[in-house]
Structure formats: C-alpha cells, structure tokens
Amino acid sequence: MSEDQKTVYLSALFAGGSAALVVDLTLFPLDTLSTRLQSARGFFKTGGFKHVYKGIGPKIIGSAPEAALFFLTYESFKYYVEPRVDSNVLPLVHMTAATISEIVGCLIGAPVEVVKQRRQTSTNTKHTSLRIFMHAVKSEGLIKGLYRGYGSMLIQEIPFSLIQFPVLEYLKKVYRVSFKNDVPLDSWDVANCGSVAAAFAAIATTPLDVAKTRVMLADKKIATDTIRTVLKQIYNEKGFKGLFAGFTPRVMLATIGAYVFFGTYDLSKNFCNDYLLNPDPTVNW
Q1: Of 26-30, 59-63, 65-69, 213-217, which one has max mean pLDDT?
Q2: Angle between helices 129-140 and 56-81 (to 10 degrees)
Q3: Is residue 191 predicted with pLDDT exceeding 90?
Q4: Which one, 62, 67, 147, 197, has the greatest CB density within 10 A?
Q5: Which CATH superfamily is 3-277 part of?
Q6: What does pTM read for this prediction?
Q7: b/e 17-54 (16+ beta carbons within 10 angstroms → b)
Q8: For the chain, what is the radius of gyration of the CA atoms?
C-alpha cells in the first residue's frame, strides 16, 4: 500500500467517524422530533417534546463506524476513478461512489436506525435500547428484525446521496474557482457547500424518509409492505401533507447537520493528514 493510499483510507475513516459523533451529539433532538412527527401514532403520543435524547445510545455507537465506512468507500472510489475519466463524467463518478457507499454504510446504519427510532417513539421507560434490540432479534429474527428497513433506507438514502454529493462537489469546484482564486477551500467553505447540497436533497426525499420511518416503526404485517404501498397509504390517509410530515425539522436537521458534518469532516481530515499521518516535528504538542 502506497503512502497516498494509506492517507486516503485513514483520513476518511478518522474524519467520517469524528464528524458523525459531533453531529449526533449536537443535533440529535431535531432527529427525534422529525421521527415523532412522521410516526403513524402521532407526535404527542410518541413523546412530543419530552426526552429528545432518547435513542442516542445506539446512534452514537453505530453512526461513527457507519460514516467512517461510508467515506472510506466514497473517497477510495474517487481516488481510483477520478484520475482515469474525463471531467465531463465526474458527476456520474460521484453519484456512483455515493450509491456504493450508501449500500455499504447502511449495513451498519439500518439496525442502528431501527433501534434508535423505536426508542425515540417509545413512551415506556423500561424500553431501553438494549431491550428493544433483544426484542427485535427474539421476536422477528436477526435479519427481519434489524434489517426490515434496509431496503427502504436505501431507497431513501441513495436518492439523497445522488443529489447531495454531485451538488456538493460541483459547489466546491465553483466556490474554489470563483471566490478562492483556485486555492484549497477552508473548512467553513466546505461546510457552506455541504449545507446547500443537503437542503436540496432533504426537500426532494422527504416522502421517502416518511415511508422509511413508517416501515421501521410498524408491526410485522405492515413491515412487509413495499415503499410504494406505504406512500400510497400515507397519501390516502393524510394527503400531500402527510407525505411531507416532519418536513421542517428534517430540512433543518439536514441543512445544519451538513454544515456541522462537512465542516468537521474537512477539519478532521486536514488534521489527520497534517498532524497524525504526517506529523510536523516543529510542532510542540
């Protein structure tokens, strides 16, 4: 393994995990409110504004390795493919990289999301994350219980990434050429680009996120329904408004979260490259 490859792999792992932890700790309440708004039982019956950090345990445990795995895949794909293709097809490269990365990352993310969302919407104080996890495995099996939302999660996450990452890469390129005289962007510049890209993606994919939440929170019978069936059911029950339940906190979470995430990611990546992988002997720690 060359030094360049080592740098790409390790910096992606370190930066992805660091950024995920920062976002989870700071913005988890918005995620809880969004989940409760999308629940079929209703916002107040699933907890309302109370205990908005319920479910953060499994999220913290799972989100760091999920993000690390995602960006390891994403950055590696870019590293090997970008130099070998024409610049005109770079958006397709980024879309492909994002899709493959979601498929890999959701292997960790899906079980975490099932446990987290059930914890967020449970009003029983005895329903700890561990008990929810064990109940899902015992009553439905490891795959059906914890991966029931894997397909619906991919259906929601892949379109999100298909929009977010090509837009992010495009904005970074335009920002660098137009405002930075073609010098590397600062971390806050990357954060700005990330927040705009995430806002577009969040608006477009909210109905899919609502359907994913319904599937993950549903009983066994409803959990076998397809995304199309769930979307149709939601529309028949609550109309167009129902498809965009939790729209405001979701877009807020995506926008603010992306600003924090991509800013932290770039900062952590630079720190890893400059000080951990290639330490400067003149710096006194």
Answers
A1: 65-69
A2: 70
A3: yes
A4: 67
A5: Mitochondrial carrier domain (1.50.40.10)
A6: 0.76
A7: bbbbbbbbeebbbbbbbbbbbbbbeebeebbeeeebeb
A8: 20
